[in-house]
Every structure is written in C-alpha cells, then in structure tokens.
Amino acid sequence: MARMSDKPARWTRATVYADMWTDPNDDPRDNDGASPDGELETLRDFLANYRLTLLMKCEGLDAEQLARRSVPPSTMSLLGLVRHLAEVERDWHNWIRDGDPLPKLYGEGDGDFDGAEAEQAVVDAAYADLTRERAAIDATLAGHADLGKRLGKDRIAVRELLVHRIDEYARHCGHADLLRECVDGRVGQ
C-alpha cells in the first residue's frame, strides 16, 4: 500500500497545455462551443460539468487506488467522495420530494467515507448509487423550470438547490484534484 510520503511523479495526459487534465479537443466538458443561454441552462451546465469532472478524476483507477485515503488522518478518498455525493444527491432529493424521506444510503455519520473499502463490489455499488440518485433528483427537478419555485417542506427555491449542488460538487472536485495527485501523480483542471 502506498503511503502519503511516497511521492508519485506528476503527470498529465494533456500534450497541448501541461496544466490540463486532458487536451481541449478530448475534454468532454464544455466542448460544444458557446455556453448555454439562460440562467437555468447555465446552472445545469455547470452542475453537469462538475459531475463529469469528478468521474474523470476517478477514471482509470482500480478499487485500491479509489479507496486509498491519501491525506491522513482524513478518511476521505475518491471512492468515499463518490459515495458521499450519492448520499447528498439523495439528501437533496429528500428535501424536495413528497412523502417520507428515503433512508440514508450508508448509515449515519461518516459511513459514506468509512465504508469506502478497496473491493470492486463496493466501487460498482457506489457508481450505481450515484447514477441512480442523480437520475432521481434530476427527474424531479425536470418539471420545475421556474428557478424561484419553492419545493418541499422547507420550501427551498429551485435556484438555491441548484447553486448548493454546484457548490458541493465544486468543493469535492477540488478534493479530488489533490486525492488523485496523491494516488498516481496525475494533475490538471
């Protein structure tokens, strides 16, 4: 098992710009020209790009690398981030859905990070959970184009929820940058 003191050589797949994750023509984020028109589409675009960035930071790693806690004493790992974001997607959906809240995916406390074990079944389940939870809240929000509309028992505005989600993903993409560099030295935006 690698230790934090084991310094991997820094590298990137990009050949055009040394500080980029991948070459601009190969980057699946914002690669189709002009930014979208309108506030709602802009917010959705930013969220989609941060979601994709997180997945890009995890790609090409095995279960051990994804589960590696690279910054002791933190329990944070790339796999833990995937599990955490699945959990918060569910939480956000619970904020706006009708009926009783769905139960926590990984239990109380830090179960999302603590349970991020280096097993392929745990990795596969985490990605499935994230995909399912993203789809659930996206489907619910698809019917609410009015950013000022307030939803759920706490009456959160659609705009506030979208901005909160962008903020959460952006924070954790920053963590993912550092975690990935500790795992194998890959750097870039």
Automatic annotation (TrEMBL):
It comes from the Bacteria. Pfam families: MST (PF04978). InterPro entries: DinB/YfiT-like, MST-like. This is DinB family protein. It comes from Streptomyces niveus.
